[in-house]
Predict the structure.
Amino acid sequence: MTNQATMSGLRSREPHFVLVPLTAQGHMIPMVDLARLLAERGARVSLITTPVNAARIKAIINRVKESDLPIQFAELEFPCAEVGLPDGCENVDLVPSAGYYKAFFEATHHLREPVARYLRAQRPRPTCMITDMCNPWTADVARELRMPRLVFHGPSCFFILCSHLMQQHGIYARITDDFEPVLIPELPQPVEVNKAQAPGFFGALGWEKFRSEVLEAESTADGVVMNTFDDLEHSYIELYRKVIGKEVWTIGPLCLYNKDLDNKAARGNKPAIDHHRVLSWLDSRKPKSVLYVSFGSLVRTRPSQLIEIGCGLEASNQPFIWVIKDVERTSEVDKWLSEGFEERVSTKGLVIKGWAPQVVILSHPAIGGFMTHCGWNSMLEAVSAGVPMITWPNFADQFLNEKLVVDELGIGVAIGVKVPYYYLTEDSPPAAKRDDIAKAVSRLMDKGEEGQERRKRAKELAEKAMSTMEGGGSSMENMARLIQYALMHGNNDSDQEEEHDA
Ligand code: UDP
């Protein structure tokens, strides 16, 4: 067969992507959206998951089956017992306490052989791997199966870029005081941070080996896929491309894949409340009058802080939906909720205990603001819905995400928290008091000029977010280029096998 004939044979084939998410909500949810987007564009997809995680998204898996999308959800056993994790602890949000994080990441390393075994058995052979940056062990698997490996970055490009610049300029090595202010070098405008707020990739003490594995796996990857879009952080994306010297595909906001209500409601986990009930509650409110309050899947707010938040919301006199995670419901919190609070706010507030259908809520016209922990998915979901934010970062990428949204995009009001939550102890006073909270709420929901300007900017960004995910938009074009890349550069062993068979 001539080279040309081989190439045209390759071009006519559908690529087979293998997606390997980190099993954490903020990492899995966008990967599941990505799987469906790729499959709808003609690619085949195998998504690696585990029994507990698959059970959480059973509604999505069933919808995929019904619609005949070519996605396989590969449920591999998560080796909890081998590393001393409690049974069923298959997602970062199920890790009982900080002392178990190392064991969790060790367990993910143990998935290497089961993943390789699963992929070796696939026909057609997988052509291209997209793997979370937190899964550096996948580099060996991709090498063995001779397929290109693209790293998927869940956080903002701004955070990834700043972390690289700080690493490359030796800031992490040189500065010993976590709270010493530093200017991040090379950025188009001055951005001041400290190591506590900008810890980079796995910056905590004791994680040095894992950090270097993650950086190494990124530097040897064939490219990077990011859940962001060009109009949101254009200059940072350009600079990041230069800094890492490889192809970067920006393909977000992935949450906008979910157009219909049932898809939106099924993301991540089974909601603790029927989404139709939330919708009818919201339908009875005025446009842009309700504040949505949620701190993502991982932040565990202490009881004293939770009570302070509740009192601040009550004092703000603004309608609200407030999400309290199951893991945060200590007897103290439950007692406080049931002994007066819920009754006092019953005409104004809806408290969701457990998993909330976040994208359903954010995209309702009654929502006028979002108090968020600044997880990147939550921020993209707010941007996509045109909702301005009160920013309350806790750790990891969240302080840098706050800077982007408040200082640069101008669609956020900072609550004013400066210290990451692992520097606090059980008896530290609340990081934000009820008065700070009530003030931030009235500033965000304000009908005056400042509030109107912020809402206008949020609306403009939402329009850009939507158009980037439509035909001809930059993220959709990048998605098409990504599929083309897999066709041209993907492992073509399957061609050889099939030619041989013929
Ligand atoms: N989420 C949700 N319901 C909840 C809590 C979180 O749907 O009750 C979703 C949220 O929409 C987002 C993801 O979980 O897609 C959380 O990711 P993010 O990056 O915002 O924060 P993390 O949980 O990783 O800190």
The longest strand covers residues 44-49. The chain has a mean pLDDT of 94. The pocket of uridine-5'-diphosphate is lined by residues 25-26, 29, 267-268, 294, 296-298, 323, 355-356, 358-359, 375-378, 381 (CB under 6 Å). The chain has two domains: 4-76+111-252+469-497, 270-465.
